[in-house]
Write a structure and sequence with these properties.
heterodimer; A: mainly alpha; 3-stranded antiparallel beta sheet; 11 helices; 3 strands; B: alpha/beta; Rossmann fold; 2 domains; 4-stranded antiparallel beta sheet
């Protein structure tokens, strides 16, 4: 008896219409985005496996509180080995969403206008509004998912540092973790698309996207985020979870409740340097003489609250930019 | 039904009017030549007809009553833009698939048959095709959408004579097969004579001549005679253009009815190229359908 085995045949997903057009026209750009994020991903993977192994080998996951004396020496070894990259890498990765916006967002419409292919693409039956909407939605969604996958990898990599470094502070893990990174990617992409449609030339649109992205994100990181919620004010020595928190400001107050200026503190330190008993540091000396040290800080527990607020703002901005791009292409582009 | 109707159409870029006061009615089923020097507003007019740009003033209706750029108009109008833009990094096959993905009515066998006839390999990147092949791919793609109205903007301007001939032959074969209306712009008049039966001349952003090619040609005569008599003869006739030499002068005159040929002058029929060139040299002259049908009137600026 002859029988042919007919099993379920795996079929390549069959894209049609504008989805296929988007895929065909932007697959190289998207592959570039995957390659750039993937390169950093591989770096984090290789470094992360070694770092996590060292973390357990040094007994840091079993020595109790990381501030305790039994943890101190292994902690110093671990920090010496890995704290450099843990502090440095987020500052670089912070700008990756801008890179994606520059290389995938800015050329989206600008290249069609610059090379004249819009006259071909927008006269084949589907309106240019459908065309640009499909590209914004599909490519924007794909980039956002890609960025979020990167966030997950980063979160895994950074795990040993979670209790040790601020999750909140500017230019650190906060920028890559949570949902802010993906939201900024979407923002960069739509910003690039709108600027490309308006400027109509690829390279100037890319430059403008980079400048504007940095111009929006950096001030928000440095000046707006501390004010998302009123910081907690407390005596410096009463704060137990200061490591994962974000100190916004600190000052010294005399017994009458007056804030000391930096000049006053310096004078105090210089005048009394000789009288500081050995082994007593300046902080202790201040406490003994009726001064109090205060801090305002954003506690690490506000991480998700801040992330949601900040990411929502970027998503709203991105939707506005996408809408403006569609309106611009509809009314002004050609 | 008119393939294209425009009323007082105008387009302004900044302070300059690229096209002004353009009122046209182009009947369906014709092959229309849109002629004019560079910068006359041809591309501007065509872009408004296909919906790529919006008029500053006036109205356009396509294929009866469709608005340019509407879903219906996009489906039923084909456009081959100037320099036939296609994506150079796409293969010919992917270009076909791209158009198939965008067009509701796409005739894949038709496109493939046309390209096979021309020996254009489907696997080749569009950027690696010769100029003639590139234009042929753009035409094949436009025709396989079975448009009712096909608009071509300077399709052969950059082609060598052989490629030009092949392109026009392919276009004319398709017109004969499908009976589509065609509007073809060009600044080269010679190649249009064989293929076009309706003429629109644009100059300096305004419509100068509109009409059936045969009627226009029949309505004009070339008179050749001694230069010494030229002024006297011109004064009695409706002269569109003239070429004077020391002894002999050639006049292109409009003849409504049978004007008597002055003694000592010879009358010859004109041709499309001569007619167009004469009008282009004399921007103040125009031949537009008047209130009473095809009557020609002269407007002096």
């Amino acid at each position: 008896m002859t029988a042919t085995m007919v099993g379920p045949v795996w079929q390549r997903p069959h894209l049609r219409g504008l989805s296929w057009v988007t895929w065909r026209q932007h697959r190289i750009g998207f592959a570039g985005a995957v390659a750039v994020l993937g390169a950093f991903g591989i770096l984090m993977l290789v470094n992360g496996l070694a770092m996590h192994a060292d973390y357990s080998r040094l007994g840091l996951d079993s020595c109790g509180s990381l501030n305790s004396s039994s943890c101190r020496t292994p902690m110093e070894i671990f920090s010496g080995r890995y704290s450099g990259i843990a502090q440095f890498l987020p500052r670089v990765l912070l700008f990756l969403p801008a890179v994606l916006g520059v290389f995938l967002g800015a050329p989206l419409v600008a290249r069609e206008l610059e090379t004249g292919t819009y006259r071909f693409a927008w006269t084949q039956g589907r309106s240019r509004v459908e065309w640009v909407t499909a590209k914004l939605v599909l490519l924007g969604a794909a980039l956002t998912v890609l960025a979020f996958c990167f966030t997950l990898l980063f979160t895994w990599w950074f795990r040993p540092w979670e209790p040790l470094m601020s999750r909140m502070a500017s230019g650190q893990a906060y920028e890559i973790e949570g949902v802010v990174f993906a939201a900024r990617t979407l923002f960069g992409f739509t910003l690039g698309a709108l600027l490309g449609a308006m400027i109509r030339r690829t390279v100037p649109a890319m430059a403008a996207t980079a400048v504007l992205w940095v111009g929006v994100v950096l001030p928000s990181v440095l000046y707006l985020r501390p004010h998302i919620e009123r910081p907690v004010t407390a005596l410096a020595n009463s704060v137990s979870d200061i490591a994962p928190s974000w100190t916004i400001s600190s000052w010294v107050q005399d017994s009458a409740g007056h804030r000391l200026s930096n000049v006053q503190i310096d004078t105090l330190l210089m005048d009394n340097r000789g009288s500081l008993p050995p082994g007593v540091d300046f902080h202790a000396w201040l406490a003994q003489h009726g001064y109090t040290e205060w801090v305002t800080y954003q506690p690490g527990s506000r991480f998700w609250h801040f992330q949601t607020i900040e990411a929502s703002c970027y998503v709203v901005l991105a939707l506005l930019l996408a809408g403006a791009t569609i309106a611009w292409v509809r009314r002004r582009a050609a | 039904m008119n393939a294209i109707e425009t009323r007082e159409l105008g387009k302004r870029y900044g302070r300059t009017w690229a096209l002004q006061d353009c009122t046209l009615a182009v009947p369906a089923g014709r092959v229309v030549a849109l002629v004019g020097p560079n910068g006359a507003g041809k591309s501007t007019l065509l872009h408004m007809i296909v919906g790529l740009s919006a008029p500053t003033q006036g109205d356009i209706a396509i294929l009866g009553s469709l608005a340019p750029g509407s879903a219906d108009a996009l489906n039923r109008v084909g456009f081959v833009a100037q320099d036939t833009p296609l994506y150079p990094n796409l293969s010919v096959a992917d270009t076909l698939r791209l158009v198939a993905s965008l067009s509701p009515q796409w005739d894949e066998p038709n496109a493939r048959a046309r390209l096979a006839d021309l020996d254009i390999p489907l696997s080749r990147k569009v950027g690696k095709l010769s100029g003639g092949q590139h234009a042929q791919v753009a035409l094949a793609v436009a025709l396989a959408r079975h448009p009712e109205l096909l608009i071509l903007d300077e399709p052969v301007a950059r082609l060598d004579p052989l490629a030009r001939h092949d392109f026009m032959a392919a276009l004319m074969a398709a017109v004969a097969d499908d009976g589509i209306s065609v509007l073809l712009s060009s600044h080269v008049v010679a190649e249009l004579e064989r293929v076009c039966d309706y003429l629109v001349v644009l100059a300096r952003g305004r419509v100068q001549v509109v009409g059936d090619v045969d009627e226009l040609v029949d309505g004009h005569r070339i008179l050749t005679g001694p230069t010494v008599e030229a002024d006297a003869v011109s004064a009695q006739l409706d002269v569109v253009g003239e070429r004077r030499a020391d002894r002999q002068t050639v006049l292109l005159v409009r003849t409504t009815g049978r004007a008597a040929v002055p003694r000592g002058w010879q009358e010859e029929p004109t041709n499309l190229e001569e007619l167009v060139l004469s009008y282009l040299r004399a921007p103040q002259a125009s031949a537009l359908p008047g209130p009473s049908g095809q009557a020609l009137r002269r407007v002096s600026a």
